[in-house]
C-alpha cells in the first residue's frame, strides 16, 4: 500500500479536508501514487493524521467524484489513471494534460427535429442536453454571495467592451493550458453566447464573405450565417473532415469548422489536414478559419487534441469557445480570440458595441475558474459522462449487426447508421412509437438530407436508468439488439 | 393635522414598518393626505399605534427617500405633491401617473470626447453617468440570494429565445402603466443591451434600409447603424424635433428617434409632430419608426409624456427601452417591442438566436420589479436627480447673460449654448484648465460639428458638492456667473 505522509497545517487558509484532497490529487497527478495503487482506509488515515474520519471521508469523496480515486467493494480505495483529467495550472504551471473546449449547444427547449413524430416521450436522447445534476450549485451560490457582499458600485457600472480584463486573463491561461491556444488577453472578446459573437464577427469581417461550412454541420451556425449577407458553400467531408483543395475552386474567403470534434460526425481532423487548411488560409490576405471549439472538454480516451489555433503561426484562426456546455447554458458566456489583424479592425470599427455580459456574472465566472471549481467540475462531469458513454456503448453491442456506430470516445452523443440504409425518418418514427426520441442527422445537413440513414443518440441529459430504458425501447422498435 | 388611522395586522406577511409605509403612501397617492398636510410626529404615531418609535422612523425615512413626505426643521413631517411619482400598479391597477423608460447610456469608461484636452479632472459633468450611490444593493442581494436558494436546474438551462415569459409579462405591465405602451408579452424581446437588440433588428428588417436619424443624435446608435449595411440620412431638427415632410424626399424607410426626450437636445416632440410621423410611416408598407425611449424615467416637472408607441394604431413603432439608466448599466437588460408584422418576421427568420441574458439575471430583475423595489428605486432616484438638477440650474443663474440654457426638467444633463457663438472647443479647453470636464455637442453631431457652440453638463454622476465645485471652476474658466 502507498505510504501517505501529509503535513497538515492547522493555520493554513484551506481547511483540513482540502489539504488532504490537494495532497492526494498532487501525488496522483505527479505519479508518485500510481494508477491501481491502494490508498490507506479512511479510518487508518484519520487515525494517522489525528483528524476526524469524516474529514478524510470528505476528501476521498471529492477525489472520487472527480475521478482521481475509485472505491472497490470490500477492497478499499485505489488511485485511477490521470490520463484525460483536467488541470489548469492556476499558478501558471503549464504541465497540463488534456482536453477540448466548449460551445453553445444548449438544452433544447424548442426541440423540433425533422420527421420526429409527436407522442409521449419517455426517453429523450437529445444531443444538445447536458447533465445539470452535477452542477456545483453550492459553489456557485457561495461565490455569488461573496461577490455581492464585497460588491462596490464598480461592479454595477458598465465595464470594458471586450469584457473584464481579469476574466480575460483567466480565460487566456485556461485556453493555453487546456487547449494550447496562444493569445494575449487583449485578443479575447467576451460575449453573451456564440450567436452574439458571430453577429459581432460579421461586423469585423465585413459583408463580402464567402464562407465554407462542413456538411453536415452545426445547424444554428448555418442559420446564423444564412441570416448574414454571406455566400455559403457547403463542403462534403471524408473521414478526415474537409479538404483544403475543395476550397480554392469555390473562391472561399472563410471556413467555419470544428477540427477537434466535428458536430455532428465526431470527426477529429488529422494534423496533416489542419496544416493544409492553415496553408490555404495563408495563401491570400483576408482568408480566415473560424474554429468553433464547441465541446472539447469531454474526451474519454487518449491524449487531448489541441485546438487548430495552437498550430496557427500566421494569425489565420478565429477561435470561439463557450461555457454553455462545460458549465451551463444559462450562464451565457462565450469568448472569441481574434488574430491581431482582426483585433485591429475590431478596435477601429466595432469596439463601441458594449459588452453583453454583466460584470457581476463575469466576476462570478472568473472566481469559479480561478479558485479551482471549474477544474473540479470538469473532472467530475467527465466521469459522469464517461460512465454514461460506456454504458450506452455496452448496451448498443447487439445493434452492431444492423448499425455502424460512430462518434465514440468524446462529446455527448453517438451516431448510429443503418447498414441497410434504412431511412432516418423510419428509424425515428419507430423509436418514437416506443417513447424514445432520437435526432436525425438530416437536422444538421445542408444538402442531400433525404439520404440520411443516421440517427444521433445524445447521452448528456439522460440518466443511466433512462439509457437502459431507452435502449430496451429501441430493441423493440427496431427488432434488434 | 391629518388624522392617521392605520389598522396594523400582526399576522400579516409584511412587517409593521412596511404596513405603515404602504398605508401612508396610499393615503398620499389617493389624495386623502394632501400635499402640504402635516403628519403626526413619529413619537405620537408610535404611541398611538403601540409600536416602537424606530418602526415609525423607519417608515418615515423610506417615505422621505422616495419623495412622498418631507421633513421641515422644527416643524415636523409634511406630505409632498405626488405629481411625477412612480406607481406601477403591480396588482394590475392601471390608475397610474407617470413616466418614461430608459436606454443604454452608461457610465463612461472610455471617456473620449472631441477637443477634450487631457489633464487632471476634478469634476466630470458626464452626461452618460448615473448615480450609483442610490443603488439598492441590499434589495438586489436579498433577491439574488433567494433566487439562488430556490434555484433548481431549470434556471441554469437555456430559456426561451425572446426571454423568460414571466419577465416579459412584468415588463409588459410596466410599459403599459408607466409609458402607455400597448403590447402583448409575446411582442417583447429581452436582450443584453440596446446594441445587441439593434443587431437583431438589422436581421429582422433586412438589408435594404434607408434610415433617418436626428442631427444631433445618440452617437453610439449612429455608429451601430453605420456598421450595418444601412444608408443613413441625418435630418436637422427645429424646436419640435424632426418633421415628417423632410423624410419623403429622402426615400427613407425607417426613422430612429427619441420623441419623449431627444438626446442630446432634450426636445420633446409635440403630439402633432408625432401624428405626422405615424401618418408618414403608414403611407407605405415596410416603413417603421424606431423609438429609443432611453431616459424617460426622470422628469421633474409637469405631466409624464407617453411613448410614441402609445399613439400607434397601425403597428409602425418598434419600441426600445432599457434598465441601464433606471437601475444600472451593468445589469445589461434591454427590451424591444415589435409590431405584429415584424414579430412574424422575427419568429420566422431570427428566433434561433438564443437569448443573451442569463435566466438567473432575468429572474432577479423580474422579482425586483414585481415586488415593488423598482418603483421605490425610481422614486428615490428621481428625488436625488431632481435635487441635483435644481441645484445646477440655481448655480447657473449667473451664466444666463452669456449662455442659453436648455434641456431642463428631464433627464440627466443640461445644455449651455454660448450666445456669442464661442466655439465649443474653446469652452471645453478653458473648463479643462480648471479641472472641469464638459462634453461637446459635436460628439453627437453627424454633420456641421465644427459649428457647435454648445456644451453638455451631466449631473447624474456628480455629487452636490462637486456641482458647486464644478460651477465655481466654470466661473473662473469663462469669466462669468
SSE topology sketch:
The structure is a homodimer of 481-residue chains.
Chain A: H1 16-29, H2 42-49, H3 53-65, E1 69-72, E2 76-79, E3 123-124, H4 137-150, H5 165-179, E4 188-191, H6 194-205, E5 210-215, H7 219-227, E6 231-236, H8 245-248, E7 254-257, H9 271-282, E8 288-292, E9 317-322, E10 334-337, H10 340-349, H11 359-370, H12 373-395, E11 403-406, E12 413-418, H13 424-433, E13 436-437, E14 439-440, E15 454-458, H14 464-478
Helix pairs in contact in A: 1-3, 2-3, 4-11, 5-11, 12-14, 13-14
Notable traits:
homodimer, 481 residues, alpha/beta, Arc Repressor Mutant, subunit A, Aspartate Aminotransferase, domain 1, Aspartate Aminotransferase, domain 2, 3 domains, 7-stranded mixed sheet, 4-stranded antiparallel sheet
